Amino acid sequence: IGALTVIPIVGAAVGAVVSLGLAALQFGTWPEILVIAGIFAAGQIFEGNLLSPKLVGDRVGLHPLWIVFALLAGGALFDFLGVLLAVPVASALGVLARHGVRRYLASPFYTGPSDSAGGNAA
User: Residue 115: what pLDDT?
Assistant: First the structure.
């Protein structure tokens, strides 16, 4: 079941069906089944919205909010393929942006013209 988490919705759906099915077989009454459903939902929300973005963001050097944004944008623009490619593309864009900012901060556009160019100092 854990291997199915690579596919965003399928892993959670299979996990929910299995856990709720086992809860129904073990307990047989609705209050206990609903408690199991609540625990499963809370775990999925925590894992999907807090834990995974934090862990993935630390590995690729992006803030967790950028990871969530990349996944949402990738999914909205390119469906399933966008979700799969969102984090690598966002990571590559982050590297390019950091490199561009570093070059800009070292350029004369940011630091201003140098006085050694023979300019007339007043």
Answer: 60
| Distance (Å, whole) CA 72 – CA 93 | 16
User: What pTM does this model have?
Assistant: 0.57
Question: In whole numbers, what is the pLDDT of the chain averaged over residues?
Answer: 86
Query: In the chain, where are the structural domains located?
Result: 1-52, 61-111
Provide the b/e sequence for 74-98 (b: ≥16 CB within 10 Å).
bbeeeeeebbbebbeebbeebeeee
In sequence order, what are the residues at sequence separation of 6 or more whose Cβ sits closer than 8 angstroms to the Cβ of residue 60?
Answer: 67, 87, 90, 91, 94
Query: What are the Cα distances from residue 28, in Å, to 20, 34, 42?
Result: 10, 11, 22
